[in-house]
Write a structure and sequence with these properties.
alpha/beta; 339 residues; 3 domains; 4-stranded antiparallel beta sheet; 5-stranded parallel beta sheet
């Protein structure tokens, strides 16, 4: 079974006890520590030894960087110690990084900040080389997701790692759950697409002579949902022909605009309710006014449209000369004003 490999980066002599405690803690978790002093890094003679340390980071999942009072061995990469370069390499590779700075060292860093111009005259009790402070400056300049933590003892580091790794495991479980939901959604989308393709196929093959297929297509006609959504209706929409559609909309308070000269488009029949103008393409009906069959793939969303109109609230007015049909006419109420 694969185990997380955890690279421990620090100077050795001043922090060897902490490194040993971390090694035990990592082994107790059944993880794999990677430590130079234990021979975990394979070396060859082709390059400098430090290059193999940087390469080994690519094979690890986590890097723990511990900064104490010693600067350590200078790297062949100018301006860095090996420990500095190990941290930079891990960040460049996008590894999970945990950075720990000894409290006494960080306290003296504050003195260093205020007295950089006197650095040659100050002797620090916890820091061997002022270059350690330059290392800390680089750490403080890192993005927020690479924050550091201070420590007095190895138990401070271990306690922090316990909290972090428990949180990491929790996030992993949540992500796995979300991925399962996402996979289910993708499966549903694929199924829906297959069903739409099947409906289209059956339509082409059976539309002319299979009443059952036609009935299924009709019940699931895209126009019903389009009208419900775009007209903001809270009920199921269903009709067989243009006459039934007009009756349905009239019962819901919509008024038919009878004069086609007032339509935005001569081929888009219009109804109005307050300031909502509903337009439906006449092409979705045959010459007898019966609703044509369309699959979701054949349907064009532009066949049902709405827009907001600037008009007075709709008030149906009925013609006394046509009491049989009582069709509503849209009236501009401003014409009734006496001035």
């Amino acid at each position: 079974m694969a185990k997380p490999r955890i690279f421990i980066s620090s100077t050795y002599y001043d922090l060897r006890n902490i490194r040993s405690d971390l090694e035990k803690y990592i082994y107790d978790r059944n993880y794999e520590p990677v430590m130079n002093e234990r021979g975990h890094i394979a070396y060859q003679t082709k390059e400098k030894l430090e290059e193999y340390c940087y390469r080994e980071i690519a094979n690890c999942n986590i890097l723990i960087s511990i900064i104490g009072g010693r600067y350590g061995t200078a790297s062949q990469h100018e301006g860095n110690s090996i420990t500095q370069k190990e941290l930079k390499t891990a960040i460049e590779q996008g590894k999970q990084v945990y950075i720990f700075i000894e409290k006494s060292v960080l306290n003296e860093y504050k003195t260093y900040e205020k007295n950089k111009h006197l650095i040659d005259q100050i002797v620090f009790s916890s820091v061997e080389d002022p270059k350690v402070f330059q290392f800390i400056e680089e750490v403080l300049a890192l993005p927020l997701n690479n924050q550091f933590t201070t420590f007095d003892s190895s138990q401070d580091i271990i306690g922090y790692l316990q909290e972090q790794w428990a949180s990491l495991f929790h996030s992993l479980l949540q992500d796995a759950s979300k991925q399962k939901e996402l996979n289910m959604f993708q499966d549903l989308k694929a199924t829906a697409k297959t069903l739409n393709q099947l409906v289209t196929f059956l339509t082409e093959e059976k539309k002319a002579d299979n009443k059952n297929i036609n009935q299924i297509l009709f019940i699931n006609h895209p126009i019903f949902n389009e009208i419900k959504i775009k007209a903001k209706l809270n009920l199921r929409v269903f009709f067989y022909n243009l006459k039934e559609l007009d009756q349905l909309l009239t019962s819901l308070g919509f008024g038919e605009i009878e004069d086609s000269n007032e339509w935005d488009d001569y081929n888009m029949k219009e109804w109005v309710y307050n300031d909502l103008l509903l337009k439906i393409a006449l092409d979705v009906f045959d010459e007898n006014g019966k609703l044509k069959l369309y699959t979701p793939e054949e349907w064009n969303d532009e066949w049902v449209n709405t827009r907001i109109v600037n008009r007075q609230p709709y008030r149906p007015i009925y013609s006394s000369n046509n009491s049989e049909t009582n069709k509503a006419l849209v009236v501009d109420l401003e014409d009734d004003l006496p001035f």
